[in-house]
Design a protein that fits this description.
Distance between the termini: 17 Å
Shape: globular
Strand content: 15-25%
Helix content: 40-55%
Low-confidence stretches: none
Structural class: alpha/beta
Bound molecules: adenosine-5'-diphosphate
Amino acid sequence: MLESSRKIVIKVGSNTLSDKDGFVNEKFIEELCNQVSQLKQQGKEVIIVSSGAKVAGISTINKWSRKSDINYKQALCAIGQVRLLGSYERCFEQHNIHIGQVLLTRDDFFIDSRVLNIRNTLFTLIDEGVVPIINENDTVCIKELQIGDNDTLAAYTATLWNADTLIILSDIDGLYNKNPKTDKDAKLVELVEDVDSIIKDIEIGEANEFGTGGIKTKLDAAKICNDYEISMILANGKIDNIITKIYNNEIKYTLFKKCN
Ligand code: ADP
C-alpha cells in the first residue's frame, strides 16, 4: 500500500508523542525521523503534521499541566513548540535532513491567497529535500487545541498537497467497532470504503487523557481525504517502527480507501 504512495503526510497525535508520565517521548521522535529518512531514500516525499506542543511545554517548564484555562494551554504550546521542533531538528540532523516549521490554522485553507502562499512554501521546501513539520498556530486559533488535535489540519494539508496517503498515528491499532480502551471484545475494522456508512455501524467512545479529538475527528479526516481520492491509514504509533511495518505489510491497521 505505502509502496505505491509517493507523497505521504504523517500525522502524529499527542498520545503518541507522550510517554506514560505525560512528557515528550524522545525515543518516538528519533524513530520517526529514522523511518522518514528511510522513506526519503526510497524516493518518497514526506510532510509531518505534529501535535504535542502542549506536552512539550509541560516537559519544559514542569507546571500548569492541570490548568484548564485556554490562555495557559496556548502559553504551554508556545513554549513547547520550540522544544518539540528542537527535538525533530536534532534527530533529522543525524540524517542530514533539514526541517521547516509551518504553523497553520484550519481557516487558512479556505482563503485563496493563503492557500497559494502555503502551497508555494510547502512545494519549495519539499523540492529542496526539506521535511516540513506542520502544527496548528495555537496563538491565533484554538480550534484544534479544543477539538481535533490536528486530524483535520492533516487532512486539509493532504488535499492541498495532493498527497497519495495520509497516515494518522494514534495509540490504537485503527478503527474498532467499539472503543478498544473500554471494550475488550472490540474488533478492528481493516478496510473502510465508505466513511459515512461505517459511522452508523460503530460506537464512538471518549478520547484519551492527552488526546483531544478521539476517533470522531479521525473519521472526519478520512472523509476529507477520501473525497479527494487520497487514502488514509490509521495505525498505532506506540508500536516500534510502525511506518516501516506498514510499508512491509507486517502489521494490521485501518485503511480508508474509496474504491471505485
Ligand atoms: P490522538 O491523541 O492519538 O489523536 P485521541 O485520544 O484523540 O488520539 O483518539 C484516539 C482514542 O479514541 C483511542 O485511544 C480510543 O480510546 C478512542 N476511541 C473511541 N472510540 C473508538 C473506536 N470506535 N475505535 C478506535 N478508537 C476509539
